[in-house]
Amino acid sequence: MNSIHLQQTLPQVFADRNSITSDVWHQDLRFHKGETYLVEAASGTGKSSLCSYVYGYRNDYQGIINFDETNIKAYSVKQWVDLRKHSLSMLFQDLRLFTELTALENVQLKNNLTGYKSRKEILALFEAVGLSDKLNIKAGKLSFGQQQRIAFIRSLCQPFDFLFLDEPVSHLDDINSRIMSEITREEAAKQGAGVIVTSIGKQLDMEYGHLLRL
To answer: pLDDT tens-digit profile of 92-132?
Structure first.
């Protein structure tokens, strides 16, 4: 997948508003593979909705979203499964971890579907983000910041053309934020992928080619 094209896309809940001032909503906007984007937003402007629309989790929007000029509302379940396995990775703001599984089991669950990372690579990522001592602790017992890093590792356990990170460092200190930024740059460069980061203030320290205000 080389592009994500939003054409006059707008959450249905915003449809009755008299005016929308946004670089994203109700615009003709393309996200291109290989480029980096920062989407800055205030709370309640539809940031997480955007991620859910692109991931096919919700479709309560007006307008059109295309992947390589194919309307995503026409995609079959099989096509979505393939996209989420090979082309599109998402770190949701609410993380969506299985709290009764351990940190490592949450990551392995994804990696077992894709076979993308070796166990050695996964353990190296846990080490890099300072969680090597949390491997066998249930995710529900960990802090939100620790869970955030687990969900981040999980998002890297697949090939992707686009990586969406919804407020990925909201609960991280500066050191862990820098580490996550470095890993993101390395993984994106390796795959020639596009990266879209959302933020309501704190953000990954990346060299963004595009700044959009939601």
So the answer is: 999 999 999 999 999 999 999 999 999 999 999 999 999 99
The tokens of 123 are what? 């353990």
pTM, entire model: 0.94
Instruction: Please answer whether residues 195 and 206 qualify as being in contact, where contact means their C-beta atoms are separated by less than 8 angstroms.
Output: yes
**Collapsed DSSP state (helix, strand, coil) of residue 28:** strand
Q: Are strands 162-166 and 70-71 parallel, antiparallel or unpaired?
A: unpaired
* Residue that has been written with the tokens 């979505």 in this structure: 80
Cα–Cα distance for residue pair 120/149, rounded to 1 Å: 17
Are the beta carbons of 162 and 6 closer than 8 angstroms?
no
User: Is 35-56+86-213 a domain of CATH 3.40.50.300?
Assistant: yes
For CA atoms 74, 164, 93, 99, give the dihedral sign. positive
Would you kindly state where each structural domain of the chain is located, as residue ranges?
35-56+86-213
Inter-CA distances, 126 with 19, 121, 130, 188, Å = 45, 9, 6, 18
